[in-house]
Amino acid sequence: MNITPEEQKPCPELPPNLGPYRVETNVSFVMSVRQNEDMEFGGRSKPDTCTALQKIAIVIPFRNREPHLEVWLYNMHPFLKKQRADYGIYVVEQNGDAKFNRAKLMNVGFAEAIKDYDYNCFIFTDVDIIPMDQRNLYRCFKNPRHMANSLDKFNFKLRYKTVFGGVVAFSKEQFQKVNGFSNVFWGWGGEDDELYQRVIAMGMSIERPTQEIAKAKAFVHGRDTGNERNVKTIPLIRKAKERMKRDGLNSLDYKVISITKHRLYTKITVDIGLPEGHLF
Ligand code: BGN
Fold it and tell me: For the chain, which domains are there?
């Protein structure tokens, strides 16, 4: 018997049978495509027997990390399906070789994803972090949520109390409330600490899963070319509260170069401009 979408029940709050998850690293795109032929192009999937409680866009900032993306996709599609998520994957690729701007790419992912579907939850994740426990729900909660607090490369310890990098979840309202990420962090570091300051400035607090449930694999790699440490972060972080009104989603400026709907993800290649004062 066919069930029309109107007759479907909401999915249970907690999906059944979640537990520790073994990350597979010896994988390929071909293997993932073969195992996910049921997906809609663009890396979209939703549960077929119930209506998911949230519509989740997963945003991955990206440049030259195909091997990590291959592993991420292979592991994360089954992971998200097991959590009965209604989701889409957005890989936002920075065009050109200017300094990497992770935060701005996140903002672009948000802005483009909401044109695609009625998303109400956004998971902003690095391409090299994969959860090791299916109870780490890739969803939105009452507060913006930090989910990369227990990485294997840091011996499953919280680096510092306010750390807010790697993987975070924001409802659409929460993200709009903080005006998204800052657009002015070029190079490695600090944009996540600045986002934390925005959350606090707006009177919200952050939450995290327990260290046990948040266990995740983070691939260790050298510093990417074009992503050298940003040495100008501290004054920017200090001024977060004042700057956030004018620097973020409301000042986001970019040009889409292409949008390609692959089987396993939507790839958005984008020109996000150059840091102020950039000279060739
Ligand atoms: C911090 C970085 C974060 C990064 C974590 C990773 C800065 C700002 C200057 C103090 N912060 O040091 O961006 O996510 O390390 O553990 O660089």
Answer: 31-271 (3.90.550.10)
